[in-house]
């Protein structure tokens, strides 16, 4: 593992990575803590700020090879989804609709952080070069295993909701 690819990239990508790491580190804290306590709310505010920074910086990262309009490509829709989802989640929490709040936050955690985060491991991308320098085939293995784990978590969650 080496940080050289991060240090040699655009500043907007560096901020994007810092925001992603902050959100990734706070996600388990949010899901494992007792709900509605002071620390859940404080960490939640930092998580929302990190996700908003992640989404906004994502809009300024060129869509290499998949640009449709200017530098924007399909991946930029994820940034808009995150900003919209954050707004819906905050609105739901303030209105006392905690089940809606939880659903929005889980959706963003699974989709924006989990699935999109795993696709940063595709060989040729910055995070693949960080974690698998010289071994791109291992990146494909990690991507496949990560998607399998996220799929199992999503399936388990849907079964729990169906049983309730």
UniProtKB/TrEMBL annotation:
InterPro entries: DUF2306_membrane. Pfam families: DUF2306. Keywords: Membrane, Transmembrane, Transmembrane helix. The keyword Transmembrane helix applies. Coiled coil: none annotated. The chain crosses the membrane at residues 6-26, 46-66, 72-90, 110-132, 138-155. This is DUF2306 domain-containing protein. It comes from Histidinibacterium lentulum.
